[in-house]
Design goal:
Neutral zinc metallopeptidase, 10 helices, Uncharacterised_pept_Zn_put, transmembrane, membrane, transmembrane helix, four-stranded mixed sheet
């Protein structure tokens, strides 16, 4: 989707860093996590969560580790025109569009007030978060411990070279909208009530991911009609069928079965944490067509309908 050129955006909506090799302290609390579960999650997500095995060093929360000047320049990200020209500016404008859509829809549909997540762009080997130290292999992720969406800017090129997805603006925006979807789950309490320790095609882990896909589709449903409060014009131009297809292509590319097939390890549904390509596309489409938080309740459907 293209942004209307005349919208005004605030570069300070995102923070940036070069990443680092330092590990930050983790926030304590929550259920006991076994060594096996931590190692499995680390392998599946690319995030080094082994620090969760020893929280005796303290229960403080660190900001993203960064001792170097960030190479990501967002100073020019003040308009829709910049968003259409620079990827980092597209991230700024996408975040502001998501804020506007969820600021209206979350309260209207659920009665829950929207609180903005932090959004951090980084470029480096590692970054410290309240959920552990993430490597550049982690891809985008949401950390509920600090209510922050983290995105390594190299991911979009990896999405094309490794996963075979088209690197288009709406495909990039879908990825961000999916991670903001996890923040919505955090605000609604869905993340706390789900059992995120399991894997498998019908597990709570998969249901969470499919719901976040549906929430990303919900954003697309409203994005071209939700206006920038500073200018009174919609944030985005209504997407073309080709642009929508590129987002669907991205959803398909990050399906567990597709990733397993490309890696040559064989498809094993028992290990899934995000859902099959068909499921991810279908739930994204539900959100895009219906624009309803209730319609995105993946926990309310039977296993056979997931």
């Amino acid at each position: 989707m293209s942004f209307n050129r005349d919208i005004k955006t605030d570069p300070n909506r995102v923070s940036t860093s070069a990443g680092s090799g330092r590990r930050g302290a983790l926030v304590g609390g929550g259920s006991v996590i076994t060594v096996v579960a931590v190692l499995l999650l680390s392998q599946l997500t690319g995030i080094d969560l082994t620090g969760l095995l020893d929280t005796s060093s303290g229960a403080g929360q660190s900001a993203p580790g960064n001792s170097a000047v960030s190479p990501i320049d967002v100073s020019m990200c003040t308009s829709g025109e910049a968003a259409n020209s620079y990827t980092q500016c597209r991230m700024v404008s996408t975040a502001e569009s998501l804020d506007a859509v969820w600021g209206e829809q979350l309260a209207a549909q659920t009665g829950t007030a929207y609180a903005k997540p932090d959004f951090h762009l980084w470029d480096g080997a590692q970054i410290s978060t309240a959920c552990g130290t993430a490597s550049s292999a982690a891809g985008p992720f949401y950390c509920p411990g600090d209510s922050t969406v983290y995105l390594d800017m190299s991911f979009f090129s990896q999405m094309t070279s490794t996963l075979g997805a088209a690197d288009t603006p709406l495909a990039e925006e879908y990825i961000v909208a999916h991670e903001f979807g996890h923040h919505i789950q955090n605000l609604l309490g869905t993340m706390r009530s789900a059992d995120r320790s399991g894997t498998g095609a019908t597990s709570d882990s998969v249901r969470l991911e499919l719901q976040a896909d549906c929430y990303a589709g919900l954003w697309v449903h409203y994005a071209s009609s939700t206006v920038d409060p500073d200018t009174g014009v919609p944030f985005l131009v209504e997407p073309t069928q080709a642009q929508v297809h590129s987002a669907i292509d991205a959803a398909e590319a990050v399906g567990d079965d597709h990733i397993q097939e490309r890696s040559g390890v064989g498809v094993n549904a028992d290990s899934w944490t995000h859902g099959a390509s068909e499921q991810r596309v279908r739930w994204f489409t539900v959100g895009m067509q219906q624009g309803s938080v209730q319609a995105c309740d993946t926990f309310a459907v039977a296993d056979t309908d997931l």
